[in-house]
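In the previous chapter we treated chains in isolation. Here, by contrast, the input contains two separate entities that must be folded as one system, with a combined length of 562 residues.
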Amino acid sequence: MNKLLPADFYHMYSRKWFWLCSVAMILIAVMLCIMQYTAMDYAVAIDRVIFLPMAFYGVALAALISIFVGEDFSDGVIKNKIISGKTRRAVYFSNLIVSWSACIAVYVLTIATSLAIGVNCFEINVTAGEIINFAVLGMFTCLTYGSIYCTITILNGNKAIAITVCMGLAFFLLFLCLHSNSMLVQQEYVDGVINPHYVTGIKRTIYEVLHDVNPFGQAAQLSDMTCINPVRFVGVDFIWMIVTSFLGGLFFDKKDIK
Amino acid sequence: MKYVLTTNALSKSYGRFQALDELSMHVPKGAIYGFVGKNGAGKTTLIRLICGLQHPTSGGYILYDRKNTEKDIGKSRRRMGAVVESPSIYGDMTAEENLKQQYRILGIPSFEGIEELLKLVGLEHAGKKKVRNFSLGMGQRLGIAIALAGNPDFLVLDEPINGLDPQGIIEIRELILKLNREYQITVLISSHILNELSKLATHYGFIHNGHMVKEMSAEELDAACRKCIRIEVNDTKALARVLDEMHIEYKILSNIQADIFAKVNISKLAAALAKEECEIITCREQDESLESYYMNLVGGGCNE
């Protein structure tokens, strides 16, 4: 795998897709800052700005990772790797590590942009420690995105289908997150009257877990710098990474490559 | 004889479709092994299996003295290079960039040999041209260059001349011959273009419906396809005596049948045989091309 990593890193960072994705996310970060700064009739604090682009981040990564990993299949270079004696596991984990690195690189560029604009234009209502804590949580979400999209693409083996599946999954999870978020943000009382849409008990716990299991749900929590349960948040990310790595390594080992 | 690759009852099925059926083949060291079969016979499936791209359903193979089930089969695979179906190259990179990427994959720290490789395959003037703008022949040659990047001892080429123009076919042929003769690289080349293979191959394997029908050397094939007169007589011992006296090359096939490998004057032969009290029953010219030999092997065109 050590030998494959330089090749895969070169493949990722020498191509236009990584830079296009980064530029797109930076532009989204800038646009969201401008919107928050101009469109609201009240002063927006920095906690609503820094991680706001995370809502779009999962969709952008679905495109980037499926293109990067899928390209090896569409151009046939994956065959060169295996014919030259590299093990399937080495091929899979090299792709995974490079995907993780790209996810974190795009994330850092995006958050750094929001932060740079935020500290200059918005009210600072959070400490540096809080920002760092949430930034670390966001990194775990990044790794989860990378694991899911990389595994889907490498097991699929067809660039076009992998892009469709990853993007489809991204939008499905996004809508699922919107639903769970809408249930969780309900106020218990509205104008002093109990809100019938407010969920309680087991139902609320299920929605909270769903919100944590869904990486878009995690992104939603980050976007307003609230976290239902940080331990569960990180635990779920670890489970995602372990399960996808295990399944990816196992099934890619048995996969017939055409 | 030392073999680079031997397969033992190798089978591969996709669902109910049996692509390879207990195929056994032997690729001798230093050979150009022509792997002959019609489209869908199982040539590419075999190549995918030996390259590790797919796993056999049953049976196995030995590559450089290592079984495919051994953990360090990768070490044997490092001694081979292959172009499976289409060349595996990044379309938006130049030839040189593609080779550099292959060097990275192989873990070769220096790019020193790239210029020489490009020269070897005749792409030294490709310059900054992106691979997507290459002709079919240039792409094929780059694919071979990439397969050669790790200095392999065994080169596997899957239908390398498919779709090439006559000039491209000649270039690829010359390149394969050069690699085999000057660099002692064993070559396994699959094709259904028999005439082209006959200009290269030192050994042949004929595959049909996933099964190896026959393996033979080029000499054996030449002998089998050699122009001759097949003669039927009532006593081949007498025929042998006469042909020996006439210094004519022949091969006795049975008590009554023989092949004569020369142009003979039938009247003189008949007269000489008459003196030995031997009668000619039938006499006809045998001429078998590689194509007709192959068609006879696989049972004619009934399966087409």
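Strands of chain A lie at 189-190, 193-194. The radius of gyration of chain A is 20 Å. Compare these points with the single-chain example from earlier in the chapter.
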